[in-house]
Design a protein that fits this description.
- There is one protein chain.
- The strands form 2 sheets. The chain has a 9-stranded mixed β-sheet with strand order 4-3-5-2-1-6-10-11-9, with helices on both faces.
- Helix 1 links the parallel strand 1 and strand 2 (47-52).
- It has a single domain (8-237), classed as Acetylglutamate kinase-like (Carbamate kinase, 3-Layer(aba) Sandwich), CATH 3.40.1160.10.
- Helix 1 packs across helix 3 (70-93) and helix 5 (142-152) packs parallel to helix 7 (199-207).
- It is globular and about 50 Å long.
- It is an alpha/beta fold and 242 residues long.
- The protein has 8 helices and 11 strands.
- The protein has helices spanning 28-43, 60-65, 70-93, 116-124, 142-152, 186-192, 199-207, 222-227; strands at 8-13, 47-52, 99-103, 112-113, 128-132, 157-162, 167-168, 180-181, 183-185, 212-216, 234-237.
- The model has no long low-confidence stretch (mean pLDDT 93).
- Helices cover 36% and strands 19% of the residues.
Length: 242
């Protein structure tokens, strides 16, 4: 078996990736396929942490845009991420993958509170760690939570799993002539306003020189390919040469 390029990985998954196109909720088939891929990665000896969004259930910004108080809406969004995290944990544990959900908002009846040292210990023991409830603070996205947690656990890379095969100069679903980037620098992402991660998350990665790989998780085996170092998706680093 090929050796993984990355030893400790932070995988960022959007909540929408757990549902079918144009639908809400959690699709059991998509969830199961994701769990199967994660099990294969863990069996390779990779230490895997996951930050999962909640947009398939509730998105704070969307709620605020319809008149809801932004702080209330964001907390509802954080709770949605806990639901997704528990669903993924259940799917993984049904495949005998030891998993822990650590929440930035304490709810000890359903998951552990986030403690940096505890997260590191779980990873060292080969458990999948799912970080839920974002940063625990309103006004911050799960992208920012992913960057923050990646720094705290000393991840080698952030893998942002999406429904497109990388970063484009404009929306490829609306523009057939959109151009895909194989490599970008953090500054290029910020200056162009590209949809990689939000600016706070991108700036955090830039400050700590943490690479970001954006790839399509809807293709079977892509998560493993990225971890093995295959060139798919878009790589964002501080060096234009990668």
């Amino acid at each position: 078996m090929s050796r993984p390029k990355y030893k400790r990985v932070l995988l960022k998954i959007s909540g929408e990736a757990l549902s079918n196109e144009g639908q809400t909720g959690i699709d059991p088939v998509i969830l199961g396929r994701l769990a199967d891929e994660i099990k294969e990665i863990i069996e390779m000896g990779v230490e895997l942490a996951i930050v999962i969004g909640g947009g398939n259930i509730f998105r704070g910004i969307a709620g605020a845009s319809k008149g809801m108080d932004r702080v209330t809406a964001d907390y509802m969004g954080m709770l949605a991420t806990v639901i997704n995290a528990l669903a993924l944990q259940d799917s993984l544990e049904s495949r005998e993958v030891f998993t822990r959900v650590l929440s930035a908002i304490e709810m000890q009846e359903v998951c552990e509170p986030y403690i940096k040292r505890r997260a590191g210990r779980h990873l060292e023991k080969g458990r999948v760690v799912i970080f839920a409830a974002g940063t625990g603070n309103p006004f911050f996205t799960t992208d920012t939570a992913a960057s923050l947690r990646a720094m705290e656990i000393n991840a080698d890379v952030i893998m942002k799993a999406t429904k497109v095969d990388g970063v484009y100069d404009r929306d490829p679903q609306k523009h057939k002539d959109a151009v895909k980037f194989d490599k970008l620098t953090y500054i290029e992402v910020l200056n162009r306003g590209l949809q990689v991660m939000d600016s706070t998350a991108t700036s955090l990665c830039m400050d700590y020189k943490l690479p970001i790989i954006v790839f399509n998780m809807m293709v079977n085996g892509n998560i493993k390919k990225v971890i093995l170092g295959e060139t798919i998706g878009t790589l964002v680093t501080g060096d234009s040469h990668g």
